[in-house]
Amino acid sequence: MTRNDEIRPDLDQGIDRKVLSQLRKRFLDINQGRMERALEGFSGRQQAVLKLLPLFFHVNHPLLPGYVSGSTPAGISTYEPEDDVLAEAQRLTRSFSYKTRQGNLPRPILGLFLMGSLGTLAQTENSDMDMWVCHDASLSAQGKDELTRKCTLLEVWAESQGAEAHFFLIDSERFAQGERDDALSSENCGSTQHYLLLDEFYRTAIWMAGRTPLWWLVPVYEESRYAEYTHTLLSKRFIRENEVLDLGHMAHIPPGEFIGAGLWQLYKGIDSPYKSVLKLLLTEVYASEHPHVQCLSLRFKQAVFSRQLDLDEFDPYVMVYRRIEEYLLARNEPQRLELVRRAFYLKVNKKLSGPARLRSQGWQRQVLEKLTTEWQWDERQLMLLDSRTQWKVRQVGSERRALINELNYSYRFLTQFARNQPMGTPTDRRDMNILGRRLYAAFERRAGKIEHINPGIAPDLAEDTLTLVQSPNKREPGQTQWAIFTGNLGTQEWEHFSPLKRSRELIELLAWSHRNGVIDSSTRMALHPGTSDLTEFELFNLLGSLQQSIDLEHSDVSDEQLLLPSVPAEVLLMVNVGVDPLGHHRDLNILMTTERTDSLSYAGVRENLVLTLDQVMINSWNEVQVSRYDSPHALLDCLRDYLNSLVSERPAPRLRVRCFCHNRASAIAQRVEALFNTAQQLLEYDRGYRYLFKVEKHYHLLKLVRGNVSHVVLETLPALITQLGEAQGGYSPLRVDEHALEGQDLALVLAQGKPNCVQVFYRQYDRQAQLYVLDEFNVLWCQRLPFLDENTLLAPLQRFFHSILFRREALRPMEDGFPAPALELRYYRLMPAGTATATGPARAAEPRLAPQGAVERPFYDIQAIIERTSADQHQITLYCNQMEFSELEHGTQLYTKVAQQIIAQRTGGERYRCYITDLDLSGVFTDSAPSTHAYLRYKTELERSLNSALTSL
What we know:
By secondary structure, the protein is an alpha/beta fold. Among the domains are: 3-41 and 108-251, no CATH class; 465-549, no CATH class; 570-715, no CATH class; 743-858, no CATH class; 862-952, no CATH class. Helix 7 (226-235) links the parallel strand 5 (212-213) and strand 6. The longest helix is centred in the middle third of the chain and has 27 residues, at 393-419. The termini are far apart. 37% of the residues are buried.
């Protein structure tokens, strides 16, 4: 058409009512064509629904669908049903008869419009009927409530007729001012996209009944003066107010709407990228033109004014494609354009491959054939796209790369656009950050993460038959690898084929196969295990465990979860995958019959049956991560990493442990799960617990401080005792695994730890006694002493404790005038089974009274004062019944001089053992008071030196 056909109703030159009537007719002609196309794409029952809906909003009749009450708002402005509609209603309800509304009865329904894909290239028999019900602004709250109920009933009725309908109430006055309450499509488009939604409405909506849009009659060049122009049209009666509906203009689109629209489409594109590509690119086109945006609705209106009424070219989807094509050609981006074309073709979903005589014809295919001819697509390209339902891993992989590149590009473009807009809000920045995390979680590659390769590209990647192979890794001598192939391949036959995927570890490969649906419940697996011990039984159970843990229906991740760092949500531990820990042991029969059954220190040879662990972790961002542990301390490393991944005030993950190796699988899984659960429970107390367990012959001590779990490996019992005697900054509870100290008295002692309490345990061995002390910080002290009787063993300790506790209480701050609670002092005798001197392990800790008269009766007092003279030097002063002996005076002869003094005070000069009865360490620990264990440690060293001097005299 030429510009001579353009209508220009100028204010300055006068407006002709006839010209306005011609304009309205042009829009209605296009509207009629789209409506016919919409009806053509539906079944007979669906067509009836579409025809009858205006009537049901026009009248209230008890026998018609959607009836609520006689007072429900009804009556469509300017509408009168045609005879074929009334005939259809009477076929539905024979007793219905229509009466024309007489007089000035209210008609609160101003207009009905269809939105969505109806009448477009993308319409199918399953397309939704999204209908805007534009109503008068004066409608009461009760009236809107009843109208909403009517809409709900009509949705139910439409569904019974094989049609899916959704109704959205629109207050036209509020909408024109940018205000609305609800989402305006069956897919929430976001609350801030007013003008973009209006742009879509003006270029796609099909008018069904009521008033027509006032916007139709405003020339594009007058859009910026929309209010003035429409005021003239109405005030000078060029058009009647009751014939038009004013929803607003398209003179300006705020930049924030491009951000909101892009965010929403990117969010949807993560799971369904094809559906979002077109809208994402259109948003990019608009944003790139800001502030002078040539939106499609204005192009559409200009074309109508110019009498360019080609239905095919002004199909809403074709319009979007043409605008994007123009943009990408100008930017010389052919790869992006090809992706857009594929997305467009798949969205329309009308197969063009195969003989033409076998394809049903229709206007949609004709338009699509015209386009694909323009694109110079050959039969091979069409067949590839038409077979998308049969696409498998290789086809999906290449397409995924293109889609992810596009989504990432759109995100970068959107981020840069938002930075350049001064009106960006904290909400915009928050939404951008959340979206960035969604994209990261969905598509970012990193070590151990299982890639999701099929974000809505193909419906089913499952293979009927697969072959799983372990083979030598030719690039890493001595190492192996796993690969998975399509089909059932025999021995060595697989070498001539390219695998779907390779991996160093089996679980990573199986998790990838399950996560992407390559293996499902019907897939048959051929196994070539190579040098591994993997069996078909184990393989079947490994897959079953993965299927239980990894949900293929990806649960939606909330914004709140994404605003926080990701944490483990579910953890699956696979123990000894493809490894039999006893399978190659020469003494297998002995091992299987032994009484020792702890899987971490098994049988007489004390073997650890936990050789490898594979961890599959699903986090709170719905990412799947696989880690493998196969070092000499694999169990410890895995446990430490697991505990350090836990975060306080966040839910603990669900932990499952599985083992399917040939020997003792159930016992191994239970042992590992119990170990992990115990450590996790102790960590949750957040009190610095220590956890002791044994692997083979080695003791392992975990220090459970959240976020910094550490462990120490101790090869012997003396090394363990030394470690348990290390100073603590406060009370540190200790949990001892039931297998860690089997047959040791220490197990009974360590189980008694209590805060604010010093506990003394002793056990008699003929003429000797073993002493254990747990102090108020749960630090262990041990000493072997001569044993005459209980009183002579414990009295020196009682005197020593009394002295240091007296000194400590004297210096402790008062709380509200009263001293803080003093330390308790308790004594226990360790009792073995049988006689008191039996050699078996202690079975009980029998409470004992403090030694009688130990403090009250006179005793020889030996006091020590230790002072720090430099960073690593100390000065010692000893007092024997108040007589001073110092290193300043006696130097290296200090202990000899004191020993001589002690012997001189004894009848007959006996050389029996002497004890320190009081000790002051305030000159050593100047910042804080030490725990009782520190006093015992210094006491032991002093007594060793003194008694050595005594025996040498």
